[in-house]
Write a structure and sequence with these properties.
By secondary structure, the chain is of the alpha+beta class. It has five helices and ten strands, in the order βααβββαβαβββαββ. It has two domains: about 110 residues, 3-Layer(aba) Sandwich (Aminopeptidase); about 100 residues, no CATH class. Strand 9 and strand 10 form a beta hairpin. Helix 1 crosses helix 2.
Length: about 220
């Protein structure tokens, strides 16, 4: 597990550069425009942003997250742009430690919620965000990054404490393998349309689980 891992603010050019390198490594980004500027991380850290690293007992950086303060319709929230964990320690609790530390930074700015997006078809990440952390899916964003392959779910995480789930309203079910919901193109198109429709009808995604060879997305009605 994550025992012995230290999570703290990243300081100095060396650590900001190491975080940028880890980010590109985990996502296998080759194009320079997909990288993170260490100078951006410096600016965020000094201006109510979150720039956090997780270090193993040997002092190696094994996780990183960053975010910034944002406002929508008068609501202050913290937006988590990215969180990455080195492949060798994924699934050990490092990601959860980073999110909890980021939540502490967000609360210190006065934010009561934190938001981020994730790939709705990546089951492990979806389960972690909605079922483990308790974040709630509030919007479906088709092709979020305008690259033809970047559907995303926007979630909101209540930082004031768990409120408890509301009554189940609807479920969406799709075929799944060990990693992905609807890996076949026809199934993916069907799942995409159904998720969009549930959000359009006022649903909030509260749980994602893999049961045997199916992915199950559970919704409650907004305001329930």
């Amino acid at each position: 597990m994550s025992d012995g891992v230290l999570v703290r603010d990243l300081v100095g050019l060396g650590e900001w550069s190491a975080a940028s390198a880890l980010y590109r490594q985990v996502f296998a980004y080759q194009h320079p425009e997909f990288g993170i500027s260490p100078r951006l991380l410096a600016a965020l850290r000094e201006n109510a942003g979150s720039v956090l690293g997780a270090f193993d007992p040997d002092g190696e950086l094994v996780g990183f997250c960053y975010g910034f303060s944002a406002v929508e319709a008068g609501e202050l929230y913290h937006y988590s742009q990215a969180a990455v964990v080195a492949p060798g320690v994924q699934g050990t609790g490092v990601g959860r430690r980073l999110k909890q530390a980021q939540a502490d930074v967000a609360r210190a700015t006065g934010a009561r919620t934190m938001r981020w997006t994730f790939d709705p078809y990546a089951l492990r990440n979806a389960h972690f965000n909605c079922t483990v952390l308790g974040a709630t899916g509030i919007r479906f964003r088709p092709d979020h990054y305008d690259d033809g392959d970047s559907d995303r779910l926007l979630v909101s995480w209540d930082l004031t404490g768990p409120s408890g789930p509301g009554p189940e309203w609807a479920t969406v079910v799709a075929p799944a393998d060990e990693r992905l919901a609807a890996p076949e193109p026809a199934d993916r198109a069907r799942l995409r349309a159904e998720l969009i429709e549930r959000f359009r009808a006022g649903g909030r995604l509260v749980r994602v689980a893999r049961r045997d060879d199916q992915a199950v997305y559970t919704f409650e009605r907004d305001g329930s």
